[in-house]
Design a protein that fits this description.
The chain has 278 residues and is of the alpha+beta class. It is built from twelve helices and 13 strands. The strands form four sheets. Strands 5-6-7-4-2-11-10 form a seven-stranded mixed β-sheet. Strands 1-3 form a two-stranded antiparallel ribbon. Helix 6 runs antiparallel to helix 7, helix 10 crosses helix 12 and helix 11 crosses helix 12.
Amino acid sequence: MTPRPQFDSEYIEGELQELGDRLHAEVAPFLIGGGAMAFRGLKDTTKDIDLVVTTEAEFDRLFAALGDQGYEEVSELDETYQQLGARLCVENDDGCRIDVFNRQVANKLIFSNGMQQRGEEYLTSGALSVRLTALEDIFLFKTVAKRPDDIDDMNTLVQTSLDFGAIEHEIAAQIELLEGKQFTTHIRESLDELYEQYEVQTPLESAIDEYYAQYMKTLEIRLVLSEDNPLSVDAIAEERDLHRDYVTEQLQQLEAYGYVEQTDAGFVDTGKRDAFNE
Protein backbone atom coordinates (compact mmCIF):
# COMPACT_ATOMS: atom_id res chain seq x y z
CA MET A 1 0.00 0.00 0.00
CA THR A 2 1.35 3.42 -0.98
CA PRO A 3 1.93 5.62 2.09
CA ARG A 4 -0.38 8.58 2.30
CA PRO A 5 1.26 12.01 1.83
CA GLN A 6 2.17 14.17 4.81
CA PHE A 7 1.51 17.91 5.15
CA ASP A 8 3.27 20.56 7.21
CA SER A 9 1.74 23.43 9.19
CA GLU A 10 2.24 25.90 6.33
CA TYR A 11 0.17 23.74 3.98
CA ILE A 12 -2.53 23.17 6.61
CA GLU A 13 -2.75 26.88 7.34
CA GLY A 14 -3.12 27.64 3.64
CA GLU A 15 -5.98 25.16 3.31
CA LEU A 16 -7.76 26.61 6.32
CA GLN A 17 -7.29 30.16 5.03
CA GLU A 18 -8.89 29.20 1.72
CA LEU A 19 -11.69 27.37 3.52
CA GLY A 20 -12.51 30.54 5.43
CA ASP A 21 -12.73 32.51 2.21
CA ARG A 22 -15.32 30.08 0.85
CA LEU A 23 -17.61 30.10 3.88
CA HIS A 24 -20.78 32.18 3.67
CA ALA A 25 -21.55 32.10 7.40
CA GLU A 26 -19.48 31.88 10.58
CA VAL A 27 -17.95 28.57 11.66
CA ALA A 28 -15.70 28.15 14.71
CA PRO A 29 -14.25 24.63 14.63
CA PHE A 30 -11.65 23.17 16.94
CA LEU A 31 -8.49 21.67 15.44
CA ILE A 32 -7.46 18.43 17.12
CA GLY A 33 -4.87 15.73 16.50
CA GLY A 34 -1.74 16.10 14.41
CA GLY A 35 -2.76 19.42 12.90
CA ALA A 36 -2.99 21.09 16.30
CA MET A 37 0.33 19.50 17.30
CA ALA A 38 1.96 20.76 14.08
CA PHE A 39 0.86 24.33 14.78
CA ARG A 40 2.46 24.05 18.22
CA GLY A 41 5.72 22.74 16.78
CA LEU A 42 5.27 19.23 18.20
CA LYS A 43 5.01 17.50 14.80
CA ASP A 44 6.64 18.29 11.49
CA THR A 45 3.83 16.88 9.35
CA THR A 46 0.45 15.15 9.57
CA LYS A 47 -1.72 13.14 7.17
CA ASP A 48 -5.04 14.61 8.28
CA ILE A 49 -6.69 17.82 9.34
CA ASP A 50 -9.17 16.92 12.10
CA LEU A 51 -11.87 19.49 12.85
CA VAL A 52 -14.61 19.39 15.47
CA VAL A 53 -17.78 21.45 15.28
CA THR A 54 -20.43 21.61 17.96
CA THR A 55 -23.61 22.30 15.99
CA GLU A 56 -25.35 20.78 12.99
CA ALA A 57 -25.49 24.19 11.30
CA GLU A 58 -21.70 24.55 11.43
CA PHE A 59 -21.31 21.04 10.07
CA ASP A 60 -23.54 21.84 7.09
CA ARG A 61 -21.61 25.04 6.37
CA LEU A 62 -18.27 23.24 6.40
CA PHE A 63 -19.64 20.48 4.18
CA ALA A 64 -20.69 23.01 1.53
CA ALA A 65 -17.50 25.08 1.70
CA LEU A 66 -15.20 22.04 1.47
CA GLY A 67 -17.05 20.96 -1.67
CA ASP A 68 -16.54 24.42 -3.16
CA GLN A 69 -12.84 24.13 -2.29
CA GLY A 70 -12.50 20.95 -4.35
CA TYR A 71 -12.57 18.38 -1.58
CA GLU A 72 -14.45 15.18 -2.37
CA GLU A 73 -15.86 12.59 0.00
CA VAL A 74 -13.72 9.50 0.50
CA SER A 75 -15.93 6.59 -0.49
CA GLU A 76 -13.77 3.73 0.78
CA LEU A 77 -12.28 4.05 4.23
CA ASP A 78 -10.03 1.47 5.85
CA GLU A 79 -10.99 -0.08 9.18
CA THR A 80 -8.98 2.45 11.20
CA TYR A 81 -10.90 5.34 9.70
CA GLN A 82 -14.23 3.59 10.08
CA GLN A 83 -13.51 3.18 13.79
CA LEU A 84 -12.61 6.87 14.01
CA GLY A 85 -16.21 7.72 13.22
CA ALA A 86 -15.87 11.10 11.52
CA ARG A 87 -19.16 12.53 10.28
CA LEU A 88 -17.38 13.64 7.11
CA CYS A 89 -14.13 12.53 5.49
CA VAL A 90 -12.99 14.44 2.39
CA GLU A 91 -9.78 14.61 0.39
CA ASN A 92 -8.30 17.02 -2.18
CA ASP A 93 -6.18 16.35 -5.26
CA ASP A 94 -2.98 16.58 -3.15
CA GLY A 95 -4.20 13.73 -0.95
CA CYS A 96 -4.82 16.00 2.04
CA ARG A 97 -7.66 14.57 4.07
CA ILE A 98 -10.00 16.55 6.30
CA ASP A 99 -12.08 14.75 8.91
CA VAL A 100 -15.01 16.64 10.41
CA PHE A 101 -16.57 15.53 13.70
CA ASN A 102 -19.78 16.86 15.17
CA ARG A 103 -19.31 16.83 18.96
CA GLN A 104 -18.39 13.14 19.22
CA VAL A 105 -14.81 12.15 18.43
CA ALA A 106 -13.40 8.69 17.74
CA ASN A 107 -16.86 7.26 18.45
CA LYS A 108 -15.93 7.42 22.11
CA LEU A 109 -15.65 10.92 23.59
CA ILE A 110 -17.90 13.96 23.57
CA PHE A 111 -16.29 17.33 22.84
CA SER A 112 -17.39 18.72 26.18
CA ASN A 113 -17.94 22.27 27.42
CA GLY A 114 -14.67 21.98 29.34
CA MET A 115 -12.80 21.08 26.16
CA GLN A 116 -14.34 24.06 24.38
CA GLN A 117 -13.32 26.40 27.19
CA ARG A 118 -9.74 25.12 27.17
CA GLY A 119 -9.37 25.70 23.42
CA GLU A 120 -7.42 28.75 22.29
CA GLU A 121 -7.97 31.01 19.30
CA TYR A 122 -5.39 30.52 16.58
CA LEU A 123 -6.45 31.44 13.04
CA THR A 124 -9.13 33.65 11.57
CA SER A 125 -9.96 33.77 7.87
CA GLY A 126 -13.17 35.21 6.52
CA ALA A 127 -16.03 33.53 8.34
CA LEU A 128 -13.72 30.84 9.78
CA SER A 129 -12.29 31.07 13.29
CA VAL A 130 -10.14 28.05 14.15
CA ARG A 131 -9.32 27.22 17.74
CA LEU A 132 -6.61 24.81 18.88
CA THR A 133 -7.70 22.07 21.25
CA ALA A 134 -5.72 21.99 24.50
CA LEU A 135 -2.85 19.50 24.60
CA GLU A 136 -4.46 17.75 27.57
CA ASP A 137 -7.58 17.01 25.53
CA ILE A 138 -5.55 15.96 22.48
CA PHE A 139 -3.74 13.47 24.72
CA LEU A 140 -7.09 12.10 25.92
CA PHE A 141 -8.38 11.75 22.35
CA LYS A 142 -5.18 9.92 21.41
CA THR A 143 -5.78 7.37 24.16
CA VAL A 144 -9.08 6.27 22.60
CA ALA A 145 -8.52 6.83 18.85
CA LYS A 146 -6.32 3.73 18.38
CA ARG A 147 -4.59 4.90 15.17
CA PRO A 148 -1.07 3.69 14.29
CA ASP A 149 0.73 6.92 15.25
CA ASP A 150 -1.26 7.76 18.37
CA ILE A 151 1.07 6.11 20.89
CA ASP A 152 4.01 8.02 19.37
CA ASP A 153 2.02 11.25 19.69
CA MET A 154 1.10 10.42 23.28
CA ASN A 155 4.79 10.04 24.07
CA THR A 156 5.50 13.42 22.50
CA LEU A 157 2.69 15.06 24.45
CA VAL A 158 3.89 13.59 27.74
CA GLN A 159 7.18 15.45 27.25
CA THR A 160 5.28 18.77 27.47
CA SER A 161 3.90 20.24 30.67
CA LEU A 162 0.56 18.42 30.58
CA ASP A 163 -1.90 19.12 33.38
CA PHE A 164 -2.83 15.56 34.27
CA GLY A 165 -5.24 16.85 36.89
CA ALA A 166 -7.24 18.50 34.11
CA ILE A 167 -7.20 15.25 32.12
CA GLU A 168 -8.44 13.28 35.13
CA HIS A 169 -11.20 15.85 35.67
CA GLU A 170 -12.23 15.56 32.01
CA ILE A 171 -12.36 11.76 32.26
CA ALA A 172 -14.80 12.12 35.15
CA ALA A 173 -16.86 14.55 33.05
CA GLN A 174 -16.90 12.09 30.15
CA ILE A 175 -18.20 9.32 32.42
CA GLU A 176 -21.22 11.51 33.14
CA LEU A 177 -21.70 12.52 29.48
CA LEU A 178 -21.38 8.95 28.21
CA GLU A 179 -23.19 7.47 31.21
CA GLY A 180 -20.62 4.75 31.67
CA LYS A 181 -17.00 3.84 32.22
CA GLN A 182 -16.40 1.46 29.31
CA PHE A 183 -14.30 4.02 27.39
CA THR A 184 -11.76 3.91 30.23
CA THR A 185 -10.83 0.38 29.12
CA HIS A 186 -9.49 1.93 25.88
CA ILE A 187 -7.47 4.44 27.90
CA ARG A 188 -6.07 1.58 30.00
CA GLU A 189 -4.93 -0.27 26.86
CA SER A 190 -3.25 2.82 25.41
CA LEU A 191 -1.44 3.61 28.66
CA ASP A 192 -0.18 0.03 28.71
CA GLU A 193 1.10 0.41 25.14
CA LEU A 194 2.75 3.71 26.02
CA TYR A 195 4.68 1.94 28.77
CA GLU A 196 5.52 -1.07 26.60
CA GLN A 197 6.88 1.08 23.77
CA TYR A 198 8.51 3.94 25.70
CA GLU A 199 8.57 2.87 29.36
CA VAL A 200 6.54 5.99 30.16
CA GLN A 201 4.03 6.08 32.98
CA THR A 202 1.64 8.92 33.76
CA PRO A 203 -0.18 10.15 36.88
CA LEU A 204 -3.40 8.84 35.30
CA GLU A 205 -2.57 5.22 36.08
CA SER A 206 -4.23 4.93 39.49
CA ALA A 207 -7.46 6.72 38.52
CA ILE A 208 -7.82 4.70 35.31
CA ASP A 209 -7.11 1.46 37.17
CA GLU A 210 -9.91 2.32 39.59
CA TYR A 211 -12.39 3.16 36.81
CA TYR A 212 -11.39 -0.01 34.98
CA ALA A 213 -11.93 -2.10 38.11
CA GLN A 214 -15.32 -0.47 38.70
CA TYR A 215 -16.40 -1.17 35.14
CA MET A 216 -15.31 -4.81 35.32
CA LYS A 217 -17.20 -5.29 38.59
CA THR A 218 -20.46 -4.03 37.11
CA LEU A 219 -19.85 -6.01 33.93
CA GLU A 220 -19.49 -9.16 36.01
CA ILE A 221 -23.02 -8.59 37.34
CA ARG A 222 -24.51 -7.49 34.07
CA LEU A 223 -23.34 -10.58 32.21
CA VAL A 224 -25.60 -12.68 34.45
CA LEU A 225 -28.70 -10.66 33.59
CA SER A 226 -30.99 -10.81 30.58
CA GLU A 227 -33.77 -8.57 29.32
CA ASP A 228 -36.41 -11.29 29.71
CA ASN A 229 -35.69 -13.27 32.87
CA PRO A 230 -35.61 -11.24 36.11
CA LEU A 231 -33.17 -12.33 38.81
CA SER A 232 -33.18 -11.49 42.50
CA VAL A 233 -30.11 -10.18 44.31
CA ASP A 234 -29.71 -13.55 46.00
CA ALA A 235 -29.90 -15.41 42.67
CA ILE A 236 -27.23 -13.17 41.15
CA ALA A 237 -25.02 -13.57 44.23
CA GLU A 238 -25.36 -17.35 44.07
CA GLU A 239 -24.68 -17.43 40.31
CA ARG A 240 -21.43 -15.47 40.70
CA ASP A 241 -20.52 -16.72 44.18
CA LEU A 242 -20.49 -13.15 45.49
CA HIS A 243 -21.59 -11.49 48.72
CA ARG A 244 -25.12 -10.10 48.62
CA ASP A 245 -24.03 -6.59 49.71
CA TYR A 246 -21.44 -6.49 46.91
CA VAL A 247 -24.07 -7.43 44.32
CA THR A 248 -26.44 -4.77 45.65
CA GLU A 249 -23.74 -2.10 45.36
CA GLN A 250 -22.99 -2.99 41.73
CA LEU A 251 -26.68 -3.11 40.84
CA GLN A 252 -27.13 0.39 42.28
CA GLN A 253 -24.39 1.70 39.98
CA LEU A 254 -25.87 -0.05 36.95
CA GLU A 255 -29.34 1.20 37.79
CA ALA A 256 -28.11 4.79 38.19
CA TYR A 257 -26.97 4.83 34.54
CA GLY A 258 -30.02 2.96 33.29
CA TYR A 259 -28.31 -0.33 32.45
CA VAL A 260 -30.51 -2.46 34.72
CA GLU A 261 -34.03 -2.09 35.98
CA GLN A 262 -35.72 -3.50 39.05
CA THR A 263 -39.09 -5.15 38.50
CA ASP A 264 -41.42 -6.88 40.96
CA ALA A 265 -39.81 -10.20 39.93
CA GLY A 266 -36.20 -9.02 40.16
CA PHE A 267 -33.55 -7.23 38.09
CA VAL A 268 -33.38 -7.24 34.28
CA ASP A 269 -30.89 -5.82 31.79
CA THR A 270 -32.35 -2.84 29.90
CA GLY A 271 -30.29 -3.48 26.76
CA LYS A 272 -28.82 0.02 26.98
CA ARG A 273 -25.27 0.48 25.71
CA ASP A 274 -22.65 3.13 26.39
CA ALA A 275 -23.06 6.30 24.31
CA PHE A 276 -20.47 5.31 21.72
CA ASN A 277 -20.06 2.53 19.18
CA GLU A 278 -17.72 -0.38 19.72
